[in-house]
Amino acid sequence: MGRLIAGRLIGCALVGALLLSGCSSTEEKPEKSYEQLRAEAVAEFMLHLNNRSETERHRDGLVEVGLRSPEDRAYVVGQCAQAYEKSIQRGGVGTGILRTPGRRRVMEVLGRLPSGPKSTGLLEQGLKDTPEVQIPAAAALVKAGDDAALKQLVEATSEVLDENMKRRGLQALRRLAIPRRREVFLNALSAKGRKLLRPVLLQTFPQDGQDRSAALRAVAGDHGNPYARVFALEVLGEQGDPAAVDLARKALDSNDEVVRPTALAVLGSAGGNKAAGELERVLRGNPQDVGAVVRGLYEVGSEEALQRALTLARDDALLVKTRAGVVDGFLARLREPKAPAPYRATSAREAALEALRELLEAEDRKLVTSAAGAIGRIGDSGADVEPLLGLLSDPNPEVGKAVVAALGRLGGVDAAAKLVSLLEGDSSLRADAAAAFAFLPRARDVPVGAVIDMLEDDRLEVRTAAFEALKNLRRTKDAMGYDPGARESARELGVQRWRKWWDSRRGG
Asked: Cβ contacts of residue 170 below 8 Å, gap of 6+?
C-alpha cells in the first residue's frame, strides 16, 4: 500500500503541490510523516527519470516538491546529487542507475530550483558530462550568474547530435541573449559555435539600424576576441555597410589569421574592381591561404576579376599552388547556379576553357590535374572528351583519377564508352570509373547492357565495379537482389532483375 500512497502523492504533485492531507489512503494505516511521504514521492519520481517520455511529468514532479520550502529543496537536491554521483561511478549502467536522459533531467531540475552551493557544484559536474547533459547544466549556471559557462553552452549545442536537444540549447541561448550579456556572448564566440550563435547574438545588439551598425563597427574594429570581429565583419559585409571594406583592409594589414578569410570575402564582394586588383597583388605575393584569397577574388563577380584570374592561371612565374588554386577556386566554378552573371556568360566560359586546355599541356602534374577537374565542371563533351582521353596513359595516378571524374561530368557517348571499358580493363581506375557513373548527365549514352553483362564476369573486382556503376547510374542503393560476392547461382536472379529494369527503361 505504500506504493499506492506514493502514487496518489504523485497525482497531487502534478496538479499543484504535495497536498498531504488529500492524499491519504482510505484503509486504516499508521499515519506517515511528511518526510516519509516526501521520500516516497521523490523516490518514485527519480525511478522514472530515465524514461524517454516527452511529458517530463516525473521531472516536473521533482521540481514541484523542491519549490515548497528550502528544506524540501535541500532534500531534492541531495537526492539528485546521490543519484548523479552513483551514475557517474557506475558509468551510467545498471538497474536503477541514471543514464544520460536521467542525468540530463537532473540538471533541468536544478536549473528550475533556486540556486545554492550544492546545486551549483552539481551543475559544474554536469559540464564534464555529455553534450546532452552539458546543455541544461550550462544554461542553469549562466542563469544563476556564471557567465563563464556560456561558452560551454554554445559548444555543447553545436556538438550535440540529437536535434531535440539542439533546439533546447538554442532556446536556452535565446532566453539568455539580452543586451547586457552582449559582451559575454561576444567573448564566448569560437570557431566551433560561431555560425550557430550568430542569429542569437544579433538579439543583443540595438534594433535601430544606425545604432546597430555603429555597434557592429566597433566590434569589427578592435574587439579582443577575433571570432567576434569575424562575426561583426560578416554582418556588416552582408548589409553592404560602407565601413565594411575599410575594416576588411584593416584586418588584412594586421595579418589577423582568424579574421583574414572573412576580410578577403568581404573585400571581394563589396570592394568592386579596385578590390580585384588588390587581391591579385596578394596572390602574386604567394600567400599561404591561397584558397581564401581566390574565394575573395571570385566574390568580386566582375569581368575584370575573371580576366585577372585567367592571367594568374597562365602566369608561369607564379607558384603552382597559386595557379592551381585559381583554377580550382575560380575557373572551375563558372557554371555554378549562383555564380555571378559575368561568369556564366558564354564568352567567359570559352575564355576559361581556352586557358584550361592550355594547362593540360603543363609540365606540373598538379596543374594538369586541376585543369582536368575544371574542364569536367565547365567543359563541353564534344570538344573536351578527346584531349582528356589522351591523359589516361599519364603515369601519375592523380591525373588519371581527375580525368575519369571529368569524363563522368562531361558525359556523351565517347566518355561513357571509355568509362565502361575502364570498369573491365583498368584495375587502377576501376573504382573511380564506377563512381563517375553517378555524374553522367544521360543514361542513354551508356551501353548499359554491357555493364550488366559484367555482373556475370569471372572476376569479383569487375562484378563489384559494374554493380556500383549501375547503382550510381540509377541513383539508388537498391541492389536489385544482386550480391557480387555470392555464388553464381545466387547471382542469377539479381542479374535478371537488372536486365528487366534496363529493358523497361529503353522500352524493350
From this structure: 157, 196, 200
Residue 260 located in a structural domain: no
Residue 144 lies in a domain: no
Domain holding 17, by residue range, is 1-126
460 contacts 485 by C-beta, under 8 angstroms: yes
* Cell matching residue 312: 594568374
Tell me the C-alpha distance between 386 and 390, whole Å.
7
The residues, ordered by sequence, that sit 6+ positions from 88 with a Cβ below 8 Å of its Cβ are 125
Distance CA 199, CA 131 (A): 21
- Residue 416, in any domain of the structure: no
Q: In this structure, is residue 10 part of a structural domain?
A: yes
> b/e per residue, 89-105, with b = 16+ CB within 10 A?
eeebeeeebbebbbbbb
Decide: helix, strand or coil at residue 345. coil
pLDDT in tens, the chain (508 residues): 333 334 444 445 444 444 333 444 455 667 889 999 999 999 999 989 988 776 789 999 999 999 999 999 999 999 999 999 999 999 988 888 999 999 999 999 999 999 899 999 999 999 999 999 999 999 999 999 898 899 899 889 988 888 999 999 999 999 999 999 999 899 988 887 778 888 999 999 998 989 999 999 999 999 999 999 999 999 999 999 999 999 999 998 887 889 999 999 999 988 889 999 999 999 999 888 999 999 999 999 999 999 999 999 999 999 999 999 999 999 999 999 999 999 999 999 999 999 999 999 999 999 999 999 999 999 988 889 998 998 998 889 999 999 999 999 999 999 999 999 999 887 889 999 999 999 998 888 999 999 999 999 999 999 999 999 999 999 889 999 999 999 999 999 999 999 999 998 775 4
* Cα gap 502→508, rounded to integer Å: 8
Q: Which residues contact 52 (CB under 8 A, 6 or more apart)?
A: 101
Per-residue exposure over 230-255, b if at least 16 CB sit within 10 Å of its own CB, e if not = bbbbbbbbeeebebbbebbbbbbeee
